Amino acid sequence: MNYTKEKEIDGVLQRDFAIEVGGETVPCVIWLPKDASGSRTLIVMGHGGSQHKKTPGIRSRAVEYAQRFGWATIAADAPGHGDRITREEAERMAQEVGARVRGEAAGPAFDSDRMKQMAERGQKAVVEWKAMLDAVQALDEVGNDKGVGYWGVSMGTAFGVPFVAAEPRIDCAIFGLAGLREGANYMQEAAASITIPVEFVFQWEDAVAPREAGIALFNAFASKEKSMHINPGGHLDIPDFERDAWTAFLCRHLARD
Amino acid sequence: MNYTKEKEIDGVLQRDFAIEVGGETVPCVIWLPKDASGSRTLIVMGHGGSQHKKTPGIRSRAVEYAQRFGWATIAADAPGHGDRITREEAERMAQEVGARVRGEAAGPAFDSDRMKQMAERGQKAVVEWKAMLDAVQALDEVGNDKGVGYWGVSMGTAFGVPFVAAEPRIDCAIFGLAGLREGANYMQEAAASITIPVEFVFQWEDAVAPREAGIALFNAFASKEKSMHINPGGHLDIPDFERDAWTAFLCRHLARD
After folding, report:
1. The CATH number of the domain where B179 resides is what?
2. pLDDT digits over B202-227, tens only?
3. How many domains is chain B partitioned into structurally?
4. A161 lies in which domain range?
5. How far is CA B6 from the centre of its chain?
6. Distance (Å) from the C-alpha of residue B229 to the closest C-alpha of chain A?
7. CB contact under 8 A, A231 and B230
């Protein structure tokens, strides 16, 4: 694996790399302790719509996990996101998505064109993230004998549920800010095939994920252990303390190392 | 305050005492570190239907909080419970409540007679628990200058919501395993007057608290910070990890000491 860029953040290495999947270059990043040697717990993170692989919420937790627990974290720019589009395209998308999640956009949050695009990108993401997992598990400082967790909310759930359903290497998953929609039967089927422990965070006044849709997705998971955390507020208002709950959840399930 | 009984449990004192309220003797208990001196964080716990003030779930957490954080915890036998009834009455009630929460009882979980009895006992409990709080805050080793948290699920919520609504000394509250029912408008009004942080734990297949009723109670709290934790399973199946979530919640809100 060739690193295209490397940066140190408070004792943690942030290394950019790229993989080739289906003729496309997929920009990825891994964070791990500077002096990492030997296998370790791995977290795969999926960013939200209009965000990118190093979005602050992902990067800050990746750094924290490396510092506190010695874990590695990986993320990729999703199809149509990050370094896979121009800066102008990213800015336009951020405005569109921002208006939608704040409830300021006209029309439905997800029309059929957008549903179709999400489904297609999700299928690509599943293949790409599997390849990313293959690549980093081949590293001595990651390996494949320790636990793997998944975290992703919003688009990170829309893509993450099919990914986790298709990926037996994931041991536990945090999802949220998403629901089951008419016309997305593949999501229901994917959720119904997930049996690993799941924590599902949900915002009660989310402009893009109605309550009933969120509860339907929570209900669809086949996991014996699944927790839904409902908090007041909109799509961008997840309380800070849920971050601690995610850490506790990941520690509980990946602490066998 | 006169202690009627005292026992040491791994460095923690468990002291029984009684208060007189409205001509009735209310059996109470306080747990605190053996060498406690000076004021400290206080937790008020309300037990479930058919249980008593030293029910294992309460006692074990009271001991843990004293050991780990130096907190004091108090609980009272609710009206019609614990040492306020005979052993035979307690056993009969435990069987009745057990059948109800396991979904094995015939008829509705709460008929109008039972609703009326719960409302009356709840009113008494509010007065008694206020008096209990007065009594222990007069102790040097508790005082009234530190935070006070409330924990109570099931009947501990049915009585706890009116108590917390009426008690400005409570800084944060954990409720659960209960819902808003037709004919219990006082619960809705009490919940609507609660603005302190609330954590609300709920079981998704609870035979005595339907989903819609639980969500309605969660919605009724006026608190800006409120979290609902939904888990699969019945009334008796709260996962162990929720205990850690309660501890984290209490620490977050009472750590100003």
Report:
1. 3.40.50.1820
2. 999 999 999 999 999 999 999 999 99
3. 1
4. 3-254
5. 22
6. 5
7. no
